[in-house]
């Protein structure tokens, strides 16, 4: 089993910044992908950004140029720096880790962007 603990999130005005962090523990495999998904009310969960153990990154078009994903391999953490936030970024953000053919999820953290 893998446990993911998220931190960060909160309320911010449009144009502001927030940083999310996620720490993984438990049965850690070196080959993995970590990322962030989000789910707004009434919408499906969507991929925001992900980064592989090799450092390859992917961003959703909606956050490209505004969000940056990074990871600390030694600490098994992944962070999402969010800038130029928009009201449409409001959602519950979930940390995800994919390893050994399984998905693991954090409990979610609320991000609210006021206009």
Question: What would your notes on this structure say?
Answer:
- With 115 residues, this protein is mostly beta strands.
- It contains no helices and eleven strands.
- Strands 2, 4, 5, 6, 9, 10 and 11 form a seven-stranded mixed sheet that branches.
- The mean pLDDT is 96.
Order of SSEs, N→C? EEEEEEEEEEE
Extended strand count? 11
Structure annotation, total helices: 0
Gyration radius, in Å? 13 Å
User: Whole-number average pLDDT?
Assistant: 96
Q: What is the helix content?
A: under 10%
Beta-strand portion reads over 45%
By secondary-structure content and strand pairing, the structural class works out as mainly beta
Largest sheet: number of strands, sense, barrel closure: 7 strands, mixed
Low-confidence stretches: none
Principal-axis shape equals: globular
- State the separation between the terminal residues, measured CA to CA: 40 Å
